[in-house]
């Protein structure tokens, strides 16, 4: 079971959080009507072995969305930052 | 009641002052407190306890602990009945009732044992080869017969009357196992001040020490260690508790059997408790399990693990046989031989090794035990109990066997094929196991961070070494948690005896058949009836990977998860393949280590407590007013308010009728409510709704629809603009949570630059819809500070004012299609608000209505709800295409243009009614072209009701190209009941399509 260090609440158990999907795909600009870009963003996911960028919401806590870098092999969590501070295209530290 | 013929006159750790009576298969027996069901059965001379899984062979008690493969019984009666309980782990209680399983008509005479004669055809893959192939649907046809012939016990049919609990626990050092090394580890960690939890599977601490003769030095050590641990406030001792799973981040699943050892749990106690424990360090002091040797008829009742024989004699004062042959490939079985001899049995030892150590040899000679060195037991003979064994000369190094040399008569054959450390928990973490040639055992390879292995689980040979290793690992674990090591880490309460290390072993797992013999019944996995030949067959068919071998033969897949069989299967496969054991590898271990009842995992979250129940602020009032409630999602909502003697149909028709003719009121507090504030609130709503909200004037409300990014509708509702930067959003009852989460997601991940705050205020507001032609008059009689005139407060207007003393928000919106108002008040004022309106009601013929009438009204009006917004439908599907703004992009605006969503053949929302007389329709019916009832048809019925306004049944549904098919008659097909109803397609707006009543 994961333990996620919420930047607002501290280390909490996985049961307080809800997985919010792949963070790498990002969210295209609404004005962008390009179907391919939207299809990629909404439907196409990588399934990496190792480092994975993903979103979690501290749903039963502060309700903040978090940008988490997790290893899919070891489940070790490398970093947790507020999603609002993390650009999806940024590096592993979320900046 | 029979005598306890197998009970010794003295000794053992049972309490002879507390006799217990119990029943097995309808016969009454006696045992003592401290017995297990298995030891008590053996004390009464009962060896035959079950029939095997596939061949219905007679089986006896094989072990004395959790590894027992044969003695599965059904325990207790009625709702407390539990199948597949391992008799060797059941503590005897007075009045215990158990029965053997999987036999008919009786254990002694089992009809299905005829299968054993034909066992050749039931080999690996038999089911697949025989029943899947011959004809289409063959498996479906045969399955029910196979299930009856093969299997385990029957589940209880009545509800479980007991309670179960779930708890969370935390510690620095978790010590798993209460044997010598576990106790030592807990002592070392506990003395340093660390918070320690020690978990022991059994009822008593001591582990393997309990199977030694009573009163020795080890008993003194045990008493003193347990005494010291009990005095440490930072140490928690949990007996009758199993660590069944090891998960990420040192999280463990524990099952505490609080009341299993009692006839019924104590009144204030649950039956079992499921613990989720988080540790900072874990010490596995899980011990090891003895393994069998595979030879002919090695599954006969009366064949038993040597360690089990020792346990029964020393711990339970039960002598499982008077004439004993011990068959071993290693030193440890001599402990059992000597103890049984001392208890008065005749004992002979058959050892595959040519010679044994001098010290051991002397002890055997002095005890008067006959030793057949360099020999093997090739077959056991007997029918329901072993009578004799065939002993052959055997060369353990070359694996060569000679002809049968002699038949040794016996009524008990103890077997020891070596030991396997219990490392399943490490395996669950994906840790590799390494094969140690010298000790012929799988030991921990790389140990994951935070884990340590101590004692016999680490392969340590003797008690002193095991205790020392526990001390070392427990101390190191505490230190890793930041505790200073205790000043005298190695000091033990009582000095332990010096013992010869019994470490010699010849790695023999299977005995070849003597020349000329062909023994087919050589079992590896007793619980799943998998034999030596099955492994050979699987390998010959190419299932060489150990994982494939396991699945093809089902070896290790029974409830015991291969505790006694996995290693031997591995060794045999390695031998057959000519590869080293390390190269063959092990199968993957997964939780649970022991079966865990579903009840424990569910805990208290059953029935009504499975999920929370949400009630409106007016709930108690509704109940007093005679409302019948219905569960919608988490909410309990008034369904209808029956007058005396009224049926649901009569009640909701009357209620809906009143809404159309006078006025009705309904509790809509369960609607999702979200407060949206900030300078960018208008822009935000413009993005999330398909239609525009920046153009919405203050004091007005607008119906809005939201899409998911993929273009599918997620939810609808009404949003009001209370101020320039302040909106009040409502969502559907069911969609509230998902919409809130989605808004937060967008604001925090996609558009963190928007200055908007969203707050869920669902529980803060009570809400009542007042609907009907007289709704305005009714509300105007109560609200003094708002001009209620149509021109001043038109349809979709929003006002704030007071109803009596209650501050309210008034929204002139309608779900029923009538002139209607939603009145929002602080939740605490809900009851007062409801009373104030209903007190004024009689003058206006006001009727309270529930959600059955609410549903009927919205279906008549053609308004969509959850049955239409089902996660598959688009705006256009629901006839809401005009809701999509062409002036601005919004969530889903790109992907709603996907080819598939623009397909002209997509089902569109229509109204439906019976084409021949007034017939009720069924939600879920498939709509088909007349007479062409195939596949998915051309659509489906989503919502149905009897329409009080029209006086007939109507429905909403989706039909391919439905808008162009008005007037067509198609078939509504309901295959489950074989019904076909011709229905006419028509507009979904059955009542007041122009909306005159709304605007009146």
Task: Tag the structure with descriptive keywords.
heterodimer; A: 95 residues; mainly beta; Folate-binding fold; 4-stranded antiparallel β-sheet; two-stranded antiparallel sheet; 1 helix; 6 strands; 9% helix; disordered C terminus; B: 1000 residues; alpha+beta; Ubiquitin-like (UB roll); FAD/NAD(P)-binding domain; 7-stranded mixed β-sheet; 6-stranded mixed β-sheet; 24 helices; 48 strands; 22% helix
3D structure, described in words:
- The complex is a heterodimer of chains A (95) and B (1000).
- The longest helix of chain A is centred in the middle third of the chain and has 9 residues.
- Chain A has a single domain, classed as Folate-binding fold, CATH 3.30.2270.
- In chain A, a hairpin with a 3-residue loop joins strand 1 and strand 2.
- Chain A is built from one helix and six strands.
- By secondary structure, chain A is mostly beta strands.
- Helices cover 9% and strands 35% of the residues of chain A.
- The C terminus of chain A is likely disordered.
- In chain A, the strands form two sheets. Chain A has a four-stranded antiparallel sheet with strand order 3-4-5-6, with no helix packed on it. In chain A, strands 1-2 form a two-stranded antiparallel sheet.
- Chain B has 1000 residues and is an alpha+beta fold.
- Chain B is 22% helix and 28% strand.
- In chain B, the strands form twelve sheets. In chain B, strands 8, 9, 10, 11, 12, 13 and 26 form a seven-stranded mixed sheet that branches. A six-stranded mixed sheet of chain B has the order 39-40-41-38-32-42. In chain B, strands 43-46-45-44-47-48 form a six-stranded antiparallel barrel.
- In chain B, helix 17 crosses helix 22.
- Chain B is elongated, with a radius of gyration of 37 Å.
- The mean pLDDT of chain B is 93.
- At the A-B interface, helix 1 of A face helix 19 of B.
């Amino acid at each position: 079971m994961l333990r996620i260090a919420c930047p607002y609440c501290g280390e909490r158990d996985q049961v307080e959080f809800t997985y919010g999907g792949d963070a790498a795909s990002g969210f295209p600009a609404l004005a962008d009507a390009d179907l391919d870009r939207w299809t990629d963003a909404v439907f196409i996911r990588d399934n990496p072995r190792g480092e994975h960028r993903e979103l979690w919401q501290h749903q039963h806590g502060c309700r903040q969305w978090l940008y988490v870098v997790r290893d899919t092999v070891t489940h070790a969590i490398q970093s947790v930052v507020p999603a609002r501070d993390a650009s999806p295209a940024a590096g592993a530290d979320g900046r | 009641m029979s005598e306890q013929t197998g009970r010794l006159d003295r000794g053992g750790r049972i309490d002879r002052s507390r006799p217990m009576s119990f029943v097995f298969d309808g016969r009454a027996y006696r045992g003592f407190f401290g017995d297990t069901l298995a030891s008590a059965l053996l004390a009464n001379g009962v060896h035959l306890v079950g029939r095997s899984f596939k061949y219905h062979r007679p089986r006896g008690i094989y072990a004395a602990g959790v590894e027992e493969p044969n003695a599965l019984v059904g325990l207790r009666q009625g709702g407390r009945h539990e199948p597949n309980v391992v008799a060797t782990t059941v503590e005897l209680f007075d009045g215990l009732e158990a029965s053997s399983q999987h036999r008919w008509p009786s254990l002694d005479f089992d009809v299905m044992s005829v299968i054993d004669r034909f066992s050749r055809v039931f080999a690996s893959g038999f089911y697949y080869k025989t029943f899947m192939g011959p004809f289409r649907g063959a498996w479906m046809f045969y399955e029910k017969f196979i299930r009856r012939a093969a299997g385990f016990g029957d589940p209880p049919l009545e509800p479980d009357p007991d309670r179960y609990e779930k708890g969370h626990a935390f510690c620095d050092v978790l010590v798993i196992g209460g044997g010598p090394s576990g106790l030592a580890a807990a002592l070392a960690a506990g003395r340093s001040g660390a918070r320690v939890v020690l978990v022991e599977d059994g009822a008593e601490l001591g582990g393997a020490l309990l199977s030694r003769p009573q009163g020795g030095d080890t008993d003194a050590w045990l008493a003193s260690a347990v005494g010291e641990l009990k005095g440490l406030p930072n140490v928690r001792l949990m007996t009758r508790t199993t660590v069944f799973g090891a998960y990420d981040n040192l999280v463990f699943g524990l099952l505490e059997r609080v009341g299993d050892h009692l006839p019924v749990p104590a009144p204030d106690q649950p039956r079992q408790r499921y613990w989720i424990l988080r540790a900072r360090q874990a010490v596995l002091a899980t011990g090891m399990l003895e393994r069998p040797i595979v030879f002919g008829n090695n599954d006969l009742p009366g064949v038993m693990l040597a360690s089990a024989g020792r346990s029964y004699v020393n711990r339970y004062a039960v002598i499982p046989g008077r004439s004993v042959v011990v068959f071993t490939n290693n030193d440890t079985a001599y402990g059992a031989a000597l103890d049984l001899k001392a208890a008065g049995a005749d004992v002979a030892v058959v050892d595959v090794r040519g010679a044994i150590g001098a010290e051991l040899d002397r002890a055997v000679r002095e005890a008067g035990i006959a030793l057949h060195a360099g020999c093997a037991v090739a077959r056991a003979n007997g029918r329901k109990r072993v009578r004799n064994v065939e002993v052959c000369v055997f060369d353990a190094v070359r694996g060569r066997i000679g002809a049968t040399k002699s038949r040794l008569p016996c009524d008990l054959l103890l077997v020891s094929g070596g030991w396997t450390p219990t490392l399943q928990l490490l395996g669950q973490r994906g840790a590799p196991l390494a094969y140690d040639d010298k000790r012929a055992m799988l030991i921990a390879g790389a140990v994951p961070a935070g884990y340590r292995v101590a004692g016999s689980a680490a392969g340590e040979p003797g008690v002193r070494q095991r205790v020392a290793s526990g001390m070392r690992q427990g101390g190191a674990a505490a230190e890793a948690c930041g505790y200073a090591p205790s000043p005298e880490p190695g000091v033990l309460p009582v000095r332990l005896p010096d013992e010869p290390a019994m470490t010699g072993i010849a790695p023999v797992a299977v005995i070849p058949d003597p020349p000329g013999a062909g023994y087919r019944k050589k079992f590896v996995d007793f619980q799943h009836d998998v034999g030596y030949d099955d492994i050979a067959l699987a390998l010959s068919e190419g299932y060489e990977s150990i994982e494939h071998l396991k699945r093809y033969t089902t070896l290790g897949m029974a409830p015991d998860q291969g505790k006694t069989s996995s290693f031997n299967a591995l060794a045999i496969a390695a031998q057959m393949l000519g590869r080293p054991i390390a190269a063959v590898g092990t199968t993957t271990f997964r939780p649970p280590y022991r079966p865990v009842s579903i009840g424990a995992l569910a805990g208290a979250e059953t029935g009504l407590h499975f999920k929370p129940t949400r009630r409106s602020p007016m709930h108690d009032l509704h109940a007093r007013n005679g409302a019948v409630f219905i569960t919608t999602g988490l909410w309990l909502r008034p369904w209808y308010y029956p007058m005396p003697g009224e049926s649901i149909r009569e009640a909701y028709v009357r209620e809906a009728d009143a809404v159309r003719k006078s006025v009705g009121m309904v509790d809509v507090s369960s609607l999702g409510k979200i407060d949206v504030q900030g300078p960018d609130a208008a822009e935000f709503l413009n993005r999330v709704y398909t239609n525009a909200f920046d153009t919405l004037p203050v004091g007005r409300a607008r119906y809005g629809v939201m899409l998911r990014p993929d273009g599918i509708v997620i939810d609808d509702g009404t949003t009001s603009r209370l101020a320039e930067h302040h909106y009040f959003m409502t969502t559907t009852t069911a969609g509230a949570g998902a919409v809130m989460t989605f808004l937060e997601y967008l604001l925090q991940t996609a558009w963190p630059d928007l200055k908007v705050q969203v707050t869920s205020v669902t529980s803060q507001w009570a809400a009542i819809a007042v609907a009907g032609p007289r709704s305005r008059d009714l509300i105007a009689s109560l609200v003094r500070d708002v001009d209620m005139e149509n021109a001043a407060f038109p349809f979709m207007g929003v006002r704030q004012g007071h109803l009596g003393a209650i501050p309210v928000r008034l929204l002139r919106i309608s779900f029923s299609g009538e002139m209607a108002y939603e009145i929002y008040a602080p939740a605490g004022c809900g009851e007062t608000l409801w009373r104030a309106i209903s007190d004024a009601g009689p003058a206006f013929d006001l009727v309270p209505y529930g959600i059955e009438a609410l549903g009927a009204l919205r279906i008549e009006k053609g308004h969509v709800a959850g049955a239409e917004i089902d996660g598959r439908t688009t705006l256009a599907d629901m006839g809401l295409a005009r809701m999509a703004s062409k002036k601005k992009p919004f969530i889903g605006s790109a992907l709603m243009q996907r080819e598939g969503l623009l397909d002209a053949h997509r089902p569109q929302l229509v109204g439906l009614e019976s084409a021949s007389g007034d017939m009720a329709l069924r939600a879920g019916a498939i709509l088909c072209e007349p007479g062409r009832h195939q596949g998915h048809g051309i659509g489906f019925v989503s919502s149905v009701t009897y329409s009080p306004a029209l006086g007939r049944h109507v429905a909403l549904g989706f039909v391919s190209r439905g808008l162009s098919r008005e007037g067509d008659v198609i078939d509504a097909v309901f295959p489950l009941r074989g019904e076909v109803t011709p229905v006419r397609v028509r507009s979904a707006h059955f009542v007041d399509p122009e909306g005159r009543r709304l605007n009146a």
